[in-house]
Amino acid sequence: MTERAFQDYYPDDVSHCYGCGRLNEKGHQIKSYWDGEETVTHYTPEPYHTAIPGYVYGGLIASLIDCHSTGTAAAAAYRAEGRGMDTEPALRFVTASLHVDFLAPTPIDGPLEIRGKIKEIKGKKVIIESTLSAGGKVCARGEVVAVKMPDAMKPKA
Ligand SMILES: CCCCCCCCCCCCCC(=O)SCCNC(=O)CCNC(=O)[C@H](O)C(C)(C)COP(=O)(O)OP(=O)(O)OC[C@H]1O[C@@H](n2cnc3c(N)ncnc32)[C@H](O)[C@@H]1OP(=O)(O)O
What we know:
Layout: E1 33-35, E2 38-43, H1 58-80, E3 93-102, E4 112-122, E5 125-134, E6 137-148
Antiparallel strand pairs: 1-2, 2-4, 3-6, 4-5, 5-6
Bound molecules: tetradecanoyl-COA.
The site of tetradecanoyl-COA has 25 residues, from helix 1, strand 3 and strand 6.
């Protein structure tokens, strides 16, 4: 059986995110998985994701780190409670803070790997540290504070 990605557990009504929503046909539709204590996703940029020729636009890098990290936050919260992502009550996280350091130019001509580590889980907040690598070299590092989705943001039935 093929492993389901974190984002495959998101209910339809919160699956339209540009970075991670499986129902957003124009979006990145990233798929994140556990790899031991870390999480991982891969994404291959398109030629139109260019910053300057040959290199990836920083906004794409930020959005990949953002959505991989919020997915990691949700998965980590379920794991901390010892239950699957298909169980109730639902745990949904949004970005409170996104910090990205661009450490080296990111080549556009190959797959990118984004890896997340859980730095802290406390109350309704999860802090994730993520790296983005190309060809084995870390090109960007991010820290995301993810907080449980407030009622005001929840889709109306
Ligand atoms: C099955 C799985 C389902 C998963 C579904 C996924 C859905 C898909 C979604 C895809 C999404 C994709 C991603 C997207 O694009 S999500 C879209 C972009 N994000 C938003 O629009 C969020 C807008 N902001 C808010 O709604 C509120 O400000 C939030 C909810 C974030 C916090 O307001 P709330 O009133 O609830 O929080 P609190 O004040 O009680 O604070 C709680 C804790 O958080 C800490 N804190 C707060 N803000 C910050 C900050 N800026 N920096 C650092 N820390 C911050 C705070 O110190 C405290 O920590 P502590 O004192 O306890 O230590």
